[in-house]
Design goal:
This protein is of the alpha/beta class. Helix content is 31%, strand content 20%. It has eight helices and eleven strands.
């Protein structure tokens, strides 16, 4: 869903010898993306048995981490019919960790749906977006063990591939005021890059988050690029994924993602094609950004 236009970007590269804080459990991270992108999940299309299996996997993890929720069984159901002209329900999965210092909220998103099956061919969606979903579970695990200053909401959204419907439903039925959201951090395709580059979109609109991104980049062995948010000569990913509906409402966001690759929306987007070291480093960088933002309090 990304728009391709010419590219002029700012680069922040720490070089190959700097490592981050290693708060990500790589073994669990890799097992999660392997499971979520397995044939058993059948591509996780909304309203399918594979989607239900993926949802159960995410809910079970939230429960094991001790997260609470404003919705029964962590599940925010929404009707697809008004949006799609078809019967059925989508399901967002929401976990909550209360903060200790401020009423502001940090919202962490990743869509867990993908394209499902076409005939007998499974579109596993490892990078898109089992990668973001597994990363979101790691972020939840960290803050479950390290109580945040801000309240944290972790959401696996459904029906992103059908037009960001899960994000739009979340906004319609958000359990707090949208004004309470300090930032939406969205992860969509973060597990592979031929040139070891992760993109962070949003600082053109919300430059207050630039220092946290730069600090996190300084602890990483991968390259972080700030841009792709519609500046002169840049691509515009400011509405490319589930952060888009929040941006339309004026809610600050940071979107993490990579360039589209040859396996994007193809049956070859499989676990075997992710780059495990890059993926782990990308998750560390995102977590370091979240930690920095959480530790900053508006007086």
């Amino acid at each position: 869903m990304k728009t391709i236009t010419p590219l002029i970007l700012l680069l922040f590269w720490a070089g190959p010898w700097v490592v981050s804080a290693q708060d990500i459990d790589q073994n669990i991270l890799i097992e999660d993306i392997r499971t979520l992108s397995s044939d058993a999940m059948e591509g996780r299309a909304p309203m399918t048995a594979g989607s239900e299996k993926a949802g159960t996997y995410i809910r079970d993890r939230f429960e094991s981490l001790g997260l609470s929720s404003q919705f029964p069984d962590f599940s925010q159901q929404f009707i697809l019919e008004p949006d799609l002209g078809e019967e059925g329900m989508g399901v967002n999965i929401l976990g909550f960790i209360p903060g200790t210092t401020t009423s502001e909220i940090i919202l962490v998103l990743a869509h867990y749906d993908h394209l499902g099956k076409k005939g007998e061919v499974i579109y596993n969606g490892a990078d898109d977006n089992a990668s973001g979903t597994a990363a979101m579970l790691q972020m939840a695990a960290y803050f479950a063990e390290n109580t945040p200053r801000h309240s944290m909401i972790f959401v696996a959204t459904d029906a992103e591939e059908k037009g960001l419907l899960g994000a739009r439903a979340l906004i319609r039925d958000f359990p707090f005021s949208l004004n309470d959201i300090k930032v939406v951090v969205n992860m969509d395709m973060i597990s592979r890059s031929e040139d070891q580059t992760l993109y962070a979109v949003g600082t053109r609109f919300y430059p207050e988050f630039r220092p946290f991104l730069e600090e996190a980049a300084g602890m990483s062995s991968i390259r972080l690029v700030l841009g792709n948010d519609g500046g002169p000569g840049e691509k515009d990913w400011s509405r490319a994924s589930d952060h888009g509906p929040f941006h339309e409402k004026g809610v600050p966001f940071i979107y993490f993602g990579v360039e589209d690759h040859k396996d994007y929306h193809q049956p070859t987007d499989t676990f075997e094609n992710i780059q495990q070291e890059f993926y782990t480093e990308a998750c560390e960088l995102i977590l370091d950004t979240l930690i920095g933002i959480d530790q900053s309090i508006n007086e």
